[in-house]
Amino acid sequence: MPIQGHCALCGTFGNLCESHVRLPKFVFKRLRTPTAANPNPVHLSAMGVVQSSAQDTQPLLCSVCENDRFSMLGEKWVAHACLQDNNVTFPLVQSFINAGVARHDIMEGVSAFYAARVADIRHECIEYFAASMVWRGQFLIGNQYSLGPYDQQFRNYLLQKSQFPKDVSIHLFLRYRSNLTQLSHGVRRTRHDLTTIYDFAIPGLSFWVVVGKDRQDWAKQCCFHENGFRPIMELEQTDSLMHEQLVAVTAKAAANGRRSRLFSPTGQ
Ligand SMILES: [Zn+2]
What we know:
Elements lengths: L3 E3 L6 E3 L1 E4 L4 H7 L10 E4 L2 E4 L5 E5 L1 H19 L9 H8 L5 E4 L2 E5 L8 H15 L13 H8 L9 E7 L10 E8 L2 E8 L2 E7 L5 H5 L9 E4 L2 H19 L13
Antiparallel strand pairs: 1-2, 3-6, 4-5, 7-8, 8-13, 9-12, 10-11, 11-12
This protein binds zinc ion.
């Protein structure tokens, strides 16, 4: 029996969908290895390393918000564009190659592909998806963050009542050069100078959503929404930063005295 209640986005009362609040459903599907003895994705946290089928869903949205908004306006296109199951096919990268678009240096040590030069890149879907991820992350039990004064702007945008939220930048990073390309994680919040950064990762792509009136110029220059060229950055350090975070997490887990319960994909 579906649970009834008020939709967290539009407020309509009725049946609620089991909405994915940590990572979208397509990411979980992509991280599974159906032929393995244990097909479930590996979860890393300071509590240990486990394989689990848990997907962190909650009765959150009505079917209109779940399907006609979150899925149709963002997720569906992003699922098609990001790194695919075979760990090789990457339609977003391929679209740059097909269009003959080269990388540009936009800052020292940072290069980017300009998505505005490729007609079939649906930038509005990328923006909607990023905003929906940050907004829904507020409802993940244990995440304990709130968009505070920005919540209403996000909500109105997601309901298609207003433009993309003011004072918000989106940074998009391609990852396709290492064995960490499939690494995915839900939204984390960190404070950085006068701004708040919400970051998450799906196969082949990492997102930073930078929120605050006092964002520095670099944040706007690299922003997929504010820079008319719509840069998608290729930062070689992205994977090494993620590797450092992985090492730190596993070290913390070991310090907590938790035994790693990681099983190999072959079950051995
Ligand atoms: Zn709704």
